[in-house]
Amino acid sequence: MAVFLVALVLAVTVGAVSAVVSVGVKEGDWIEYKVTTTGSPPADHDVQWARMEVTGVQGTAFDVEVTTQFSNGSFLHEVLTLNLEKGQIGDSFFIPANLDKGDVFFDANVGTITIINVEQKTYANAERTVVSASTPQTTFFWDRETGAMMEAYSTYPEYNFAITTVVDKTNMWQPQISGLEAVGLYALTIAAVAVVVGIGVVLVLRRKRSS
Q1: What are phi and psi of 6, to 5 degrees?
Q2: pLDDT above 60: residue 37
Q3: What integer pLDDT is reported at residue 12 of this predicted model?
Q4: How does residue 75 score in pLDDT terms, banded at 50, 70 and 90?
Q5: What would the pLDDT profile of 113-123 be if each residue is shown by its tens digit?
Q6: Which residue has the higher pLDDT, 211 or 170?
Q7: If we measure between CA atoms, which residue out of 177, 147, 151 comes closest to residue 29?
Q8: Using CA atoms, how far apart are residues 128 and 119, in angstroms rounded to an integer?
Q9: In the chain, domain spans
Q10: Comparing C-alpha atoms, which of 151, 147, 155, 154 is closest to residue 167?
């Protein structure tokens, strides 16, 4: 009976965890990163740029086309299949969407990871709500809405190198207009409306005079 109850509790727990796994990306979403390495990284980690594009989504699984540029100018093209429910998240490229502080998710390479903070930060010219967590080598920041990685700071003292990855461009959100830019845009809009109205008034007066 005790064994049965334990199995039942585990089944309910697994079901609850699976129920909250939410994919925040869709086909066609892409994101680009600037990557900086310090120290003496091995050739396969000496990266300066990367791009990821979601090419298909099915349930909690999706395909990602990854292009990596190394410091020597060469490129590596890969197609990865990720599955958030199974913890197949690559190098933590994408995690479940809409997590909060204290929530956990599964990484097949690391184990259970707990979200330690939620905050507002600016990425790709837009303020975003991000969640963060840490593993023994890396501190991560992910966009809460999409689950996409925004920043990662990795250190490998035993190999004498470190990697910093920060999002540069994406089509998953639009850049926000700053206060001064907004004022300028409104001024241009008002000016354009005034010009159109003025032209309309002139045309009406000319028609009246002609008649």
Answers
A1: -60, -45
A2: yes
A3: 40
A4: very high
A5: 999 999 999 99
A6: 170
A7: 147
A8: 8
A9: 22-170, 177-211
A10: 151
Residue 123, beta-bridge partner list: 126
Could you read off the pLDDT of 2-18 as tens digits, one per residue? Answer: 443 334 334 443 433 44
Q: CA-CA distance, 60 to 81, in Å (whole number)? A: 11
pTM of the predicted model, to two decimals?
Answer: 0.76
Residue 97: what pLDDT?
98
Q: Which amino acid is at 181?
A: E
Contact at 8 Å (CB) between 163 and 152?
Answer: yes
Residue written as token pair 């330690």: 116
Q: Can you list the pairs that 120-124 forms with residues at least 24 positions away whose Cβ atoms lie under 8 Å?
A: 121/150, 123/150, 123/151, 123/166, 123/167, 124/167, 124/168, 124/169, 124/170, 124/173, 124/175
Sheet order of strands, 161-170 included: 75-83, 61-70, 47-58, 30-39, 161-170, 149-156, 138-143, 126-134, 117-123
Tell me phi and psi for residue 7, to 5 degrees: -60, -40
Nearest to 79, CA basis, from 70, 94, 92, 68: 68
DSSP letters spanning the chain? -HHHHHHHHHHHHHHHHHHT------TT-EEEEEEEEEE---GGG-EEEEEEEEEEEETTEEEEEEEEEETTS-EEEEEEEEEGGGTB-TTTTB--SS--TT-EEEETTTEEEE--EEEEEEETTEEEEEEEEE-SSEEEEEETTT-BEEEEEEEETTTTEEEEEEEEEESSSPPPPPHHHHHHHHHHHHHHHHHHHHHHHHHHHHHHHH-
